[in-house]
Amino acid sequence: MNNSRLHLYSKFLTAATLVLIAAGGLVTSTRSGLSVPDWPLSYGKLFPPMIGGIRFEHTHRVIAGLVGVLTLVLMIALLKTEKRPWLKGLGVAAFGAVIAQAVLGGLTVKYLLPAPISVLHACLAQSFFALMASVALFTSREWLGEKPILSENAASLRRLVLATSGFVFLQLFLGAVARHSANRASVGIHIAVAFLIVLHALLTYLKISREKTILGRLDRHAALFGLLALIQIFLGFGSFVFTRMLEKTEAPRLGAVLFTTAHQTLGALILGLVVLLTIRIFRLYQKPL
Questions:
Q1: Quick one: 78 and 63 in the same domain?
Q2: Consecutive sets of 10 residues in the chain, 289 residues long: mean pLDDT of each?
Q3: Do residues 230 and 274 both lie within one domain?
Q4: What are residue 286's DSSP bridge partners?
């Protein structure tokens, strides 16, 4: 597999991972996590009757299996064709993460959705998506052809995006805690951090746009981050209304399913975007000697 094909394959795997995260979000939002009592099979079958919550849980498992196979192929391709040892290591780490995620998925079923394991399962999924997005970046022509940009603002910009990445991951953790447990404090902190992230998105864009030598694409990258952060605020508000303000119903409302699933999926996309932005800024921006 040559570099261009490896890059396209990595992008496809990144997209498949995002679909998997959305499928997992549907399982939680539709309260289908315990629709199938056994694991890894579903009622002892590869193809159980697709009725009720089974269709969400089993579909999630099928997509997870496909992502696992795709990740195995990626690891083998990187080990065979990649010259950079650290990128080979990322391929091995990615496959290890898939195995760990599968085990966590099985444990959530076996122990009836315990909050700590469910939260860890959610956070690892988001982290894996960011890892796949990073591999796609590292195999791109753009990455191989970029040259450092000397800037007096390099140190401050690096600190800003690194802190932003940390806040985004913290936000995803808080969201997972709020979603999988009855912890009310996490909801309030989650809301506060959301506005902090929007502020960081604005500061990041302003700092990058002031650079005379900055690549236009990186400028747009930062602008997209800000736009998605604002959309995420809207989705978060909708999720809060449907899950916290309205009376809970026996079957989840369609609005609750759509808002919470979209909110979770966009959270993963924002994490991947911020991680890529951070990586590129650390590589591009260097302080003059």
A1: yes
A2: 88 98 97 93 90 95 97 97 96 98 96 95 98 97 80 83 97 96 90 96 90 68 95 97 89 94 98 96 76
A3: yes
A4: 150
